[in-house]
Amino acid sequence: MELFTQRAIQVIQSIPAGKVMTYGQIAALAGSPRGARQVARLLHSMSAKYSLPWHRVINAQGKISFQAEDNRQTQEELLKLEGVVVGGSGKVDLIEYRHDPGHDAI
Fold first, then answer.
1. 3-class secondary-structure state, position 32
2. Is the model's pLDDT at 106 over the cut of 60?
3. Which are the contacts of 24, defined by CB distance < 8 A and separation ≥ 6?
4. In the chain, which residue ranges form alpha helices assigned H by DSSP?
5. Angle at the Cα of 10 (from 7 to 16), degrees rounded to 5?
6. How confident is the model at residue 104 (pLDDT cuts 50, 70, 90)?
7. CB neighbours of residue 77 within 10 Å
8. Integer Cα distance of 15 and 7 in angstroms
9. CA 48 to chain centroid
10. What is the pLDDT of residues 2-50, one digit of tens each?
11. Is the pLDDT of residue 103 over 70?
């Protein structure tokens, strides 16, 4: 497994319940600032194998990225169960809910 993949998995696994991170944020922390699409592919292919909290990963605008309504609804429901408020357009307030590993640990 590549180092980027290992790091990205660790970052994703560290997202606490009730918080979200963006694909780009995860990529940057894993060592590839332009690797947001790699993070998306990793989530698609490895979420089940590594028990990744895929539902806590959203796009840079704070929105759920799924196009398929059933997937979008599942992600929204899982986030709401953790106390994350999801707006009508599938948008999450990144100021309130974004996990910042360096800052949140303080």
1. coil
2. no
3. 33, 36, 39, 60
4. 3-13, 23-29, 36-46, 69-81, 94-97, 101-104
5. 140
6. low
7. 11
8. 13
9. 15
10. 999 999 999 999 999 999 999 999 999 999 999 999 999 999 999 999 9
11. no
**63: amino acid identity, one letter:** K
Distance CA 20, CA 68 (A): 20
- CB distance 23 to 60 below 8 Å: yes
Number of H helices, E strands in the chain: 6, 2
Using CA of residue 65, residue 28, residue 21, residue 1, what is the dihedral sign? positive
Q: Sort 23 into a burial class: Cβ within 10 Å, 0-12 / 13-18 / 19+.
A: buried
Q: Residue type at 8? A: A
Percent of all residues in the chain with a pLDDT value above 90, rounded to a whole number: 84
Structure-token pair, residue 98: 């974004």
> How much is the pTM?
0.92
